[in-house]
Structures are given as structure tokens and as C-alpha cells.
Design brief:
Length: about 400
Amino acid sequence: MQTESVTTPFGRRPAKLALVKRQLQTAETGSNRPVEKWKVFRDACEARERLGLQDRALTVLDALLTFYPESELNCDNGLVVFPSNAQLSVRAHGITGTTLRRHLAALVEAGLIQRRDSPNGKRYAHRDKGGDIEQAFGFDLSPLLARAAELASLAQEVAAERLQFRRAKEALTICRRDVRKLISAAMAEGADGDWEAIEDMYVGIVGRLPRNPVRHQVEAILDEMQLLRSEILNLLENQINCQNMDGNAVQNGWHIQNSKSESMNELEPRSDKEQGDAFEPEAAAAVVGQPLAKPDQMKPFPLSMVLKSCPQISDYGPGGAISHWRELMGAAVVVRSMLGVSPSAYQEACEVMGPENAAVAMAAILERAGHINSAGGYLRDLTRRARAGEFSLGPMIMSLLRASSGTDRRSA
């Protein structure tokens, strides 16, 4: 144990075990390899937030380094600097004494410097006859030398995270611009689709972005915005393709053809009124314009969008509310039992669609339960279509959103 490396502060400042621990760690990890002092300082500046330091503390550290005569930190030359508070204040751009002492304490707490206090608390040095320093009392810069590699690694992490954050904000800005202008163009040119509901979705996504967001918040909003942009482009692309294939097929709406000759009685409503309100995947796909996706392309929708399109599922969550995907999947199991869907049918849907998408499908079936004769048969049919790449949740969610927004406007 290097007991000579441990010192206690002068005066009323208490000695803490954390301080002793840092001093011992510095002595154990001390490096004999010189390090360029301004490179270490730049790394400390880059990792400022990780170290819990303010800008003024770094100004004080800069001033301390100017009192070290060499350009490289080297333990052979001694790493203790001993300027007075007045000298430090001048080199720290006139910082007041109270502020100076506070930021010196912050640097010690962050483990970038150590105190080497004299018996009377003054900062000075003993010199030999040749003028060389034998012993100095002041601030020890050896923690900077010992932590040089750590500070460099922290600086690289911070720089990489800042770059990723900047790229995410740039992508979100472009995506927001695309969505906003595509909606405006579609509304101005009278494209088919419930563009008011889509615009409400856009406004809702933007409204959840805080004034000063962090990276994970920007990335979450970006995922939702990209999904909305994809839905809009699919809607417009499908409409253009339909117009190109058969211009006569468009009268007051899109011409919908069902090429399947066989019908499933257990999935079809009995009355004409029910047929008009039934929730058919092909019809929803044609109305929304979403091309049917492959099973491996079925990505979970944002939970907020699912709950907005399928509000009834929230009643079966804990406390009558759903806040994350695990609660939604638990509520879907309750709904499955209530609607008489067999465990095997739901298990098959989870295997084909994924557990999140299977829960979304159950939430959508609950919304249309009054128009579906057999929830189990309906879910098996959706699973079969998903396995064949003929079914996507996008049309289902968008259709329910249109129905929900229409109900809200009529009630208003």
C-alpha cells in the first residue's frame, strides 16, 4: 500500500472515505507514460457532462494547467502546482474567490485533481540548493495522468453520441417536412383518403416532442414519423397504380375486386348492413392503399397509435389503462378468452405475426366484435393471410383510425 499518496485536507474540510479511495486508486493506476496536458484537458472538456462539471470548473482547470511548466504531464517532474487564489483568479478570467473555491472543490470531487495541503494550508514549495523542487503543497494533477485513457474513452463516447443525436434530429427534420408537404399536396389536389385524420396523427406525433429532447426521445418520435410517412406514400402509390391500371375503375371511390371465389361463412356478416360495416382485410387495404406485407416485414406499430385506433382494449389493462406493450399483450389474452378464441389459434397468430402484432390484431377484433360472427375463425384467417404475405396490420389500424376520427367529429 502506498500510504504516502494519501493526504487529508487542511482546516474544516472533512476527510471522506471516497476521497481516500480515489487517492489510492490514483496511486495504483498511476502511469509512468507522459501525456500531453492539453489533450487530456480537451478530453475532460468533451466528457464534461459525464463528469458532472460546469464550464467555469473547466476554466479553473485550464488555469491550473497553465501553472504546470511542461507541455506533458510526467510523474518524474512532479505534478503539484501551487498558485495562490489571487493568481488563479487572474488566469481564470477574474473569477471571484467564492466561485473559485467552489469549482476547485468540484474538480476534486470529480477526481481530476487532488489536494496536497501544507501544515498551515498555504500553497508553496521547498527547493534544494540548486533551485529544484523537493516538495510542493497545492494541487496534484496526477489524477489527470492516471485517468488519461479513461477520459479519452469518455470523450469518444460523448462525441459518437452527439453525432448520432445530430443525425437523428436531421432525419426527423427531413421526415417532418416530407409528411407535412405530402399531406398538404394530397389535400390540395383532392387525393382520396381521410387526410384530416392523418393530419391529426401528424400533429399528435409532433406534439409529443419536448422542447429540449434527448436522443432517445428524438429517435422514438422519428420511428413514428417514418411509419406515418410510409403509410402516406403507400396510400398515394396504391392510388396512382390503380388509376394507371384502370382509369375507368375510379368513379366516386376505388374499385375493389376480390379475386377469391371461395367465401367463409363464419367470417362474413349475415345482413346487408353488417356487410357494409364488416372489417375485411382486402377492403381495408384498398381503402387505405397499403400493400400487403410479408410476415417478416410486420413491424409493431407505435403503441400510442394502436391505443388511439383501438381504445376499448384499454379497459382490460391493469387499472383500466395500458402504458406499455407488456400490458397490451396481457389485455389481449383476457380479450381472447372473452371472445372465445382458442389458445391454439392465438398461439399460432403469435408465432406468425409476433406477440405484439397478435395483440394488436386482438385489439382490432375487439373493436369490430359486433360485426364478426366468429372471432376465432377470423383470427385464424388473418394468420393464414399473414403467413402467405397477404395481410398487413397497416390497413386495419388506418381503417379503425378513420372510423374513430369520424365518430369524434360527429359527436363534436
